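Exercise 7. Predict the joint structure of the components listed below.
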Amino acid sequence: MKEPKSLFLPENSLGIVTDFYQLTMAAGYFEHGMHDIATFEFYIRHLPENRSYIITAGLEQVLHYLTHVRFSPEALRFIRQQPSFRRVSDDFFEYLKNFTFSGDVFAIPEGTIIFAEEPIIRVTAPVIEAQIIETYILSTINFQSSIATKASRVVYASRGHEVIDFGTRRAHGPQAGVLAARACFIGGCKSTSNVFAAYELGIPTVGTIAHSWVMVFENEVESFRKYHEIFPDATVLLIDTYDTLVGAKHAAAIGEQLKGVRIDSGNLVELSKEVKKILTSQRMNHVKIIASGDLNEERIDDLLRNEAPIDSFGVGTEMVTSKDAPALGGIYKLVEQEHGGRPIPKMKFSKGKLTYPYKKQVYRVIDKNNFVEDIIGLENEMRGTVPLLIQVVKEGKICYTLPSLEEIQSTALDNIAKLPEPYKRLKNAENYPVKKSAVLEAKKREAEHLLSRINIS
Amino acid sequence: MKEPKSLFLPENSLGIVTDFYQLTMAAGYFEHGMHDIATFEFYIRHLPENRSYIITAGLEQVLHYLTHVRFSPEALRFIRQQPSFRRVSDDFFEYLKNFTFSGDVFAIPEGTIIFAEEPIIRVTAPVIEAQIIETYILSTINFQSSIATKASRVVYASRGHEVIDFGTRRAHGPQAGVLAARACFIGGCKSTSNVFAAYELGIPTVGTIAHSWVMVFENEVESFRKYHEIFPDATVLLIDTYDTLVGAKHAAAIGEQLKGVRIDSGNLVELSKEVKKILTSQRMNHVKIIASGDLNEERIDDLLRNEAPIDSFGVGTEMVTSKDAPALGGIYKLVEQEHGGRPIPKMKFSKGKLTYPYKKQVYRVIDKNNFVEDIIGLENEMRGTVPLLIQVVKEGKICYTLPSLEEIQSTALDNIAKLPEPYKRLKNAENYPVKKSAVLEAKKREAEHLLSRINIS
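Solution:
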């Protein structure tokens, strides 16, 4: 009988977690002796609707990948059997057998605010290596950045009230739940319900009870009392299983040790106010009210504008899927190639998808703790501004002290603080100014002219 | 120096890939000697907007999980250190040390069309076990079903033209890309770009070339010729790097061995027609035109209505994130509990979130190869209709012959064929009739009355 497959990622053969064309192209380059050093840049062409900035996240998992990417013998046998590979030599498979990543990588650290068209990762490596790694890098950075950004919007809307990630069950599979928990913390969440994320990353974990707890026991009062007995210092009770206001009274009966109540349905403005009254009438003002149930930045903003006395927000589905903008269109494009010892510019002109050539850097102009504008220029072009891309990998080895997750979160919160309000408001935000340097524009025109002449005739 | 973390799932401790409250509740049940057999049902309360049916997917990964879920000693040490667990006894951790799933599971096989409120998985197990496994099951089924459904819409819109999954780079992390490839195949895609999915699942894999291939060589003509040299039987060329129509001519120069051309930008209706003319003028009508670039079911429908001569669609972002409906709100609710040898009904009344009690079955009425209506009733209530839930796990062991992925795809295609057109059209589909049996309604009223009396007073 067939055994069920886990579909967990193959730790000994991460090289095959890629698109098939990366491998056919790799074989093609190899067979043609094409081992030029190429530079690819990862950037987001357009920000999604409702996003005025992006918070970078996922670099740590990219660095894990780059230092662990290999091909297992079984995987190589499989590739070799593919009909397209019929004419590919043994030497190529021998090459893949010993494949490791040996290039240099520059990246904008995690937790940094970035904008459209800004390179956030720049890879310089033999073209085969740079090509194979594309897919994994894209999916890792696209996803975590998308979630860190959404989380930062939710946290911003919450005006200092705690936001908790409750989303694992609605994430795109079990691993996405863990990555989302990490990204939500970077975006400013205080804690997560995901136990593995807590275990692996040290994110504080919290949990209350589910409706099932209340339903398993004979009645609600009994279920509350029994929970309190085992968790006297952490008694947070879900009060909407049968009737929220009756539930609030049943919870209040626990007495002053009660830590919090959670409301997961109904009109949260009205219910939180009524529940607060019940708690206040019993001198239990210290009891926290936690709200959950399809919350997002707009609904939270609305709750707070309507003065709902809510202390914490448990946010799930909307945050871990970035529901209103569930994909970040990050791309990875060839911009330069060393050939015969000199840099050759590379660019494409596809309609609406033009790319800028050469190795670039992002320069941020900051005035008294405010981000003023960014300039995308050539590498080493400018002085006196802050270059955002820094070297993280040198000849295949990490040359960068990985920040802790708390440090990354601080970077993100600090970046948000420095981004002026018009650029970060939840709706109708203004476009933050990102310019291209005159030198880059001139170099691009020159390359476009040259490449047009060669290719379009 | 800190090593970068992979955040791959912990194969030896899948028990902690769960929400924290599952573990506090488990401890609470344990400490109170609550070992009743409980039945939980997984269902989707409302279908997302733009969805008139759901194709179930992910059961195989759930079965892998249920037969492998454990807690490692390190993970148990971590849980024990959590402040909330201060009063929890050693016995509970001893219990978790030996934890395995020992219950029964009924499920609707993968590839089946289902609707809102229909239980798709029913777990009957000691309440602690049934509780701990909730989170992983939800994220697995929610995600894969959401993608299989989106893929089936894309395939339906494509009217027999091949659909290829190109989405890995935009999926929610590297594992989501693999799970999405599986779900897209179930939904009717013919192939995937994901090499690991091809290796592990036997899905046909395809790939063409990227813009980088074209850019790496001296010019487009040279790059096309060089690709053809190594892949003479599989030459599919991307022609929009510089100018699509010039690119088409360059590709045609390969001669009759050329298999296909891919267009990834611009006005696909106009360009595909122009490209077709160029190919026809050179007697290369056999060359396939593949379109890609932010495609979804609506755009494909539009292309075909406008008679774009496109043979295959490469679909990425929109399909693997189910972009217009990126989350499926599947829930897992306690419906029944055995206590003192008899079944006790369980339900909640939370506003807008009422649940129906007792073990249920879904009965499908089929007339001459057409689905007519579904009835949600009690287990074993009806004869003469097809019950959709079948037993897949008995006392913790799989008692079900896992179908191959091809068989699951056939089931899905067959189900789509049997669903009358009004219920599956892309826009403004009618609601398929799903009723609850009179017996179930009567039982629900009875339970509601009883539970209200106990809990709301």
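Discussion. Chain B has two domains: 14-146+325-455, 153-320.
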